[in-house]
Amino acid sequence: MARQLSDGSEYIMVVNDPTEEDLRQVFESLSRNLEIHIGSYWWWIRYELP
Question: What pTM, to 2 d.p., does this model score?
C-alpha cells in the first residue's frame, strides 16, 4: 500500500501483522518450546534452540 503526502512524495506502507500460524510456520521446525504472544499493537516469540 502506498501513501502520498501533500508535498507529492510517496511512501510504501509495510504491514507487519503476522498471524500466529505465520510465525509457527517460520519458527516451529527451527526451535523447541515455542511460545507466541500476539497483542493489540505488538507481537513477540520465545523459543529455545535445539
Answer: 0.64
Coil, strand or helix at 35: strand
- Does some domain include residue 23? yes
24, with CB counted inside 10 A (0-12, 13-18, 19+), is middle
The domain containing residue 36 runs over which residues? 17-50
**What is the identity of the amino acid at 23?**
L
How many Cα atoms within 13 Å fall on the side-chain side of residue 22? 8
Looking at residue 47, its amino acid is Y
For residue 10, being part of any structural domain is answered with no
Q: Where are the alpha helices (DSSP H) in 1-50?
A: 20-27
Please write the tens of the pLDDT for every residue from 28-42: 999 999 999 999 888
